[in-house]
Amino acid sequence: MTSPLHLVISERLRQQIENGEYVPGAKLPSESQLIEEFQASRITIRRAVANLVKQGLVVTHQGKGVFVTERRKVVYTLSNPLTFLEDDLKRQQIELKLKTVVFEPVTVSEEVQKILQLPKDEPIAYLQKKILLADGVPGCVDITYILPNIGKRLAPQLKQNMTFPILEQNNIAIERVEAVIECTNANLELSEYLEVPLGHPLLVYRHTAYTANDRPIVHGESISRGDRFCYAIGQQRNKI
């Protein structure tokens, strides 16, 4: 049985990408060039490109063209004792940069108020929303709620750095972190921040950090591109 032409074309382009004919960041031939190369209709070429987008191999930028995505993944090791993301990326020789887009006190939802044990009559926390870039590519949006006294006092440092190391540097020791990993899809805001299409599959790492006496101080979620981030977990049998 013969495959539809759009699948044949997308498979050919996929092979060219995986063989290195089109390297990460490279621009694919224009729509007109692909029409001529494969002797196909415009709608067939668009369906072929859409197949590549769904596979996470390319991303389209309106008015600019179709570009091959970066396929190297950032691996964050979830271990005990805690390993901070910066240390993990440094070990992998990946440059981490962050861009804070929101840092302000807000009235939080009832759910966050309960998690952070904030007073019901004043459920205020500092909200920080930042984009994490690995080797210059946006890979993760980090949305964090921080206790108001800590957010206000450490605002200049938190705006420029990752949360956990700044807390540790200011003698706020994190004793444990509870986390859940889930899946979601990109909404309009996330698609713009992470430069992915609407509906693109994303990983959600939802976490709450506790200090001594089981006091929660930070709650948030890191929402990352599945083609750019993954998590590694090491397990070891307890020794008796």
Task: Describe this structure as you would to a colleague.
Helix 1 (5-18) crosses helix 3 (42-54). The strands form three sheets. The chain has a six-stranded antiparallel β-sheet. Strands 1-2 form a two-stranded antiparallel sheet. Strands 3-10 form a two-stranded parallel ribbon. The protein has helices at residues 5-18, 31-38, 42-54, 85-91, 110-115, 148-153, 155-160, 163-169, 188-194, and strands spanning 58-61, 65-68, 74-78, 96-107, 124-134, 137-146, 176-185, 201-211, 215-225, 229-233. The chain contains nine helices and ten strands. The radius of gyration is 22 Å and the shape is elongated. A hairpin with a 2-residue loop joins strand 5 and strand 6 (137-146). The longest helix has 14 residues, at 5-18. It is 31% helix and 35% strand. It folds into two domains: 5-68, Winged helix-like DNA-binding domain superfamily/Winged helix DNA-binding domain (Arc Repressor Mutant, subunit A), CATH 1.10.10; 74-233, Chorismate lyase, CATH 3.40.1410. With 240 residues, the protein is α+β, with helices and mostly antiparallel strands.
